[in-house]
Every structure is written in structure tokens, then in C-alpha cells.
Amino acid sequence: MEEAPREECGVFGVWAPGEDVAKLTYYGLYALQHRGQEAAGIAVSDGRRMVVFKDLGLVSQVFDEQTLSSLRGHLAVGHTRYSTTGSTTWENAQPTFRTTATGSGIALGHNGNLVNTAELRDEVNARAANGNGNGNGTRAGARAQATTDSDLICELLAANAADTGVEEAAMRLLPRVRGAFSLVFADEETLYAARDPKGVRPLVLGRLDRGWVVASETAALDIVGASVVREVEPGELLAIDADGLRSSRFAAPDPKGCVFEYVYLARPDTTISGRSVHATRVEIGRRLAQEHPVEADLVIPVPESGTPAAIGYAQGSGIPYGQGLVKNAYVGRTFIQPSQTIRQLGIRLKLNPLRDVIRGKRLVVVDDSIVRGNTQRALVRMLREAGALEVHVRIASPPVRWPCFYGIDFATRAELVAGSLDSEGVRRSIGADSLGYVSLGGLVAASEQPRSRLCAACFDGEYPIPLPEEARLGKHLLEELSGDALPARPAAEEPVPDVSGAASGDAGPLSVGYGAADALRRP
């Protein structure tokens, strides 16, 4: 029943002599847990050596008091991961680490996804074949332990840093890295932060009494008591050390921030480009009420992501707002696979209706997005069984018709329900009495950002960063390039329609969704 778009990753970095940087990073990652729940890690340096501790699991599962107390130093890099390139393995957990030829260390955390991953892998292999590795003994044709685009960046940084230093190596490498990246990395003495020229994924700078903090969201600055200074600019590299903060430009800025951060990804208590995410979502709901009015008795959210928009819809429509669904806060990602019997319970594991509230009512149900339609289909059925007279579904984003290649693990286009059906087709598919999506214009207006500064490729198919051919895209690209065996998957029972709608045994253009290269082969 995994329906929502998967988050990407959260990054956090702190340079603060005299502070307990490991615990600050732990709390910062706690604030960013929503951005990835598969793995977490912290790298800490005391100026002489760097120690990395990482593992699979939630932040609270990976770290305890004893572990944090052993991580002592003046700077730290933290990461909480959802796998967007590479499988869920310990090796792929971040921060990723490399040792340079001179013996210094580099730890790196990455939020986003690159589109020239295969090209960078070719460069790493070419350097190894020519004996120009990073001093780790990488040999030609050898498979790196990790299979992420992030690991490639760290490898190339370490390979060049021995000759030029980390800062200059980054200034030379980053202009050749294409895609979405918000990076936080460090050597033994200096903390670095960098953001791609489009600024697709968020990254902010904060000030502590005795240091500096960088993080994916302002909410992480709040939790560690840092004041927000500004966003890291697109195309900017920051360096923070004993000499203070330095800013360099490795590319001209051309902002295309991800509009889906406002819809779903970011915490509601985060601010992006000066705009409160919560206020944006409430305004989306108001505009949704104007664009898709309906006669009903009660507006209810799909908790928690649909709550601000439902409040806005109620304000805009004059229909009372209420809680009709109870969410089990303890159902999240798990490494224990449910049995078939439990799996059939589906959405009831997460949501349960308040029957006395719902019975006999005409409901407006507000959710943040529809991806495959599985959750909404089960939800509509459950509400009708609980006694709802009518169920009108309202969605606080436009139809998701295109996969994301920049850091959100959407499905493939073949799996996206709106990729092949119009709104009426989706309405019939989920069984609602009516269905309404907010318009892209309404969403952009609610964000209070210029349309020209936003990426909305998942809604309109206009990708601001050019994509390579399909064979060089996909979540498991590096495993496939290195010959790693992936789990066997049942073949699709029916031919998959291509983008134009014609049946074909092969995937059509852009059918391989970012982070879902194997989806067409899944049952």
C-alpha cells in the first residue's frame, strides 16, 4: 500500500568548536527524518581524524547515547536516507567516506539525484584503469562497495583533493556534475556545502552562537537553536573553518526549485524561499475550493499531509472542517515484511474511520497527491463502508503524470494513474463521486514564487535539466553497470503501453521512473 511519493534524503552539517556537534547533528537529523527512513549516519572530525558511524534504520534506531558520546569533534556531517540511486544496503548508507592519497578523509552527504551518473562512473573507472585513483587501491574494473551517485562524487573529490585541496577540487568537479544536488561534506578541518545551479533541492544556512549549521530545511535549524541566515544559493559552494565562512560560485544560478516540496516533501513548519510551507498548503486548499466547489457536509483530511489543505478548503468553501480519519502514528517503514493476511488489511493499518463522524455525511476528502491511486481507492471504499453518503476527493496538487529524475522516488509513467487516464477516468478508478485537482497555476500562485523559478516536471513533463537516454537512468543503474545481480522479478503479464499509448513490449520514452527502473517488471 506504499502510495505516497517517496521522500529523498536529508542533509545536515555543523561547524561549532566547543559544542557537542554529534548530538546537534542527531537532533538535526531527527527533524529531517521525514525525508528518508532507510538509513542514517553521522561523520565527526576533531581536526586530526574523522569517524563515521552509519547503519540501516531510523535515526533513533541507529544512534544511542553511548554511540553519540564517542563521536567527539568540532564539525560533523549527517544524513538520513531514502534510496534514490542504489539499493538499501549498509554500504549505500551515508555519509559516504573516502581517504585521499595524502591520508586525509572526506565524508559526504547528498540530497537529490544526478542525471550523468553513468558518465561519472565511466570517469572513475577510467582513472582507476590509468592508475589515477584516490589512493584507496581502486583497480581497473573493480566494483565499488557503494552503488550511489553520491559515492561517485566523493570518489572524484578525493581523487583530486590530494593535488589541489578539497575546496579547489570541488570547484573543478561540481561544474561537471549534472542533476539535482544539495551536498554537505567535510574534511578534518573544514565543512562544505554546495547546491546545484538549478537549486532543485533545498539547502539553508544557519548561525549558532559558536558556529554555523547547514541543513535541508529550516525546521532542522529551529530544533538545534540556530537562527536562519539565508538559503545556500544555486551554484554556490560554502566553506566554513577557523577563518570563517567563504562563498564561491562554481556556476551561474538558474533557480528551478521543486514545487513538490510545498505540496508534500517539506515539513509544514519549514520555510522555503521566504514562504511558509504550512501557509502555502492552506492557500492551496482555499484555491482548490474555488476551483472545485461541491455541496457537502464535512471536509476531512487524509492525515497528516492533507491537513493544511483541508483547513484551507474548509475556509474557502464554508463547509465545516472535521477529523474523520485516525492515523496510527506508529505505522511507518519497517524492515519486517507483513504476512499476506496482514498485507490485505492495507490502508487500515494506517487509517481508521471515525464512524460516528462519517455516518450519513457528504464528505470532501482532501489529500496531497494521487500517484497510483491505490490508497484513494481503498480509502473511498472504507469511507462508504463507514456510512458516508457521498465521497468527493480533492487533491492539493495537479495530476502527477511524469516521473521525477531529480530526487523524488515516484513510480514509472506506466504506473502513474494520471499518466494514462484523464480526471474522469481517475475518478471512476478510485470510485469517488467527484474528483478535483488544484490547477498548476493555483499551486504556483499559492507558493508565491515566480513560475520561472520552479520545477514542475512531474506535472507538466518539462524537465529543466536535460536527461540522458533511458538506458543511463534508473535507481539501480550502478548495480547494473557493475554486473551486480538484482532480485529476480516476475515478468509483466501484459505489454506496457508507451507514452503515446501504443502497446509495446518495451518501455516507451521516459517510462523508466526515477528510482523505479525495475517497476515495469514488477507484478
TrEMBL record:
CDD domains: GPATase_N (cd00715), PRTases_typeI (cd06223). Residues 9-243 form the Glutamine amidotransferase type-2 domain. Binds 1 [4Fe-4S] cluster per subunit. Binds 1 Mg(2+) ion per subunit. Mg(2+) binds at S305, D367, D368. The keyword Transit peptide does not apply. Its cofactor is [4Fe-4S] cluster; Mg(2+). Keywords: 4Fe-4S, Glutamine amidotransferase, Glycosyltransferase, Iron, Iron-sulfur, Magnesium, Metal-binding, Purine biosynthesis, Transferase. The active site is at C9 (nucleophile). Residues 484-523 are annotated as: Disordered. It catalyses: 5-phospho-beta-D-ribosylamine + L-glutamate + diphosphate = 5-phospho-alpha-D-ribose 1-diphosphate + L-glutamine + H2O. Pathway: Purine metabolism; IMP biosynthesis via de novo pathway; N(1)-(5-phospho-D-ribosyl)glycinamide from 5-phospho-alpha-D-ribose 1-diphosphate: step 1/2. It is an enzyme of class 2 (transferase). In the C-terminal section; belongs to the purine/pyrimidine phosphoribosyltransferase family. Catalyzes the formation of phosphoribosylamine from phosphoribosylpyrophosphate (PRPP) and glutamine. This is Amidophosphoribosyltransferase.
